[in-house]
Amino acid sequence: MASSVPPSPSSPPSPPPRIRVGSAPDSWGVWFPEDPRQVPWQRFLDEVAEAGYEWIELGPYGYLPSEPARLLDETGSRGLRVSAGTVFTGLHHGPGVWDATWDHVASVAALARAAGAEHLVVIPAFWRDDKTGEVLEDRTLTAAQWRDLTSLTGRLGREVRERYGLRIVFHPHADTHVDTPENVARFLDATDPDAVSLCLDTGHYAYCGGDSVALIETYGERLGYLHLKQVDTGVLAQVAAEGLPFGPAVARGVMCEPPTGVPALEPVLAAAGRLGVDLFAIVEQDMYPCEPDRPLPVARRTRRFLRGCGV
Predict the structure, then answer these.
(1) Would residue 154 be called left, alpha or beta, if left means φ above 0 and alpha means ψ between -120 and 50 degrees?
(2) Domain for residue 8, yes or no?
(3) Is the dihedral of CA 179, 185, 191, 196 positive or negative?
(4) Is 11 within the bounds of a domain?
(5) Could you tell me which residues belong to the region Disordered (predicted)?
(6) 129 Cβ partners below 8 Å, 6+ apart?
(7) Which residue in 133, 171, 210, 269 has the fewest CB atoms around it within 10 Å?
């Protein structure tokens, strides 16, 4: 006789991994909390939504409203959600900078958490001034400075997770000490994967000689976040020949609208998709400074292009 006991219901299948696409104030030429050459924050929010994005980053702290209720009202009314906040740190300077660093990090992390974000993008300090090119310190860290950078970044990751529930994603960046493939590998090998994930910026990594697909295939378990941008190789050759700092290089157009530059984003997104994890892929079209009417058409075209890449 067949059993009359109904079979146990199976657990619902897990949703497939997602790559969630967004943009950032950077794509509207915003680098600073206040600057007369930048579009007002209201215009950024209006236009990023109009371009077809649902996710944004906070950008420089103080550009968007820093009162959580107002920020949520302004983003929510436009159908926008926040993926991350961003901080700059100089932890290679050692324990003496911890308190000041934490004060800044805590303000941004609290706002990001209140806005519903799950990530905090951490960018290391520049070794030369981003505008003037003035050399601020040696571009190569000592062994002791590497130890301070990696150990304190790990501490930052643990404390941000414990106090704010956010995961830090470390962003290698041009004109910082974590830039080239060799330095990125050294940083990743020396940090705790449970405390520190990687924010791979495809443009910065290409700018510094890196292959994003190779990095994903080698350190895929560390990838926690993506920034999407491309480099104009012709302009980059000029930048390298002239020794330009990053700010003037951007003003010259070294970061270009996809798909006109490198790396090709389709293989990057495919490699990230093969990891089988949820990821944010935030467009950062460095354009500081730019005319106020330029960003929206670029953002629309970029969103269409990314849809063609399957995201």
Answers:
(1) alpha
(2) no
(3) positive
(4) no
(5) 1-22
(6) 135, 136, 245
(7) 133
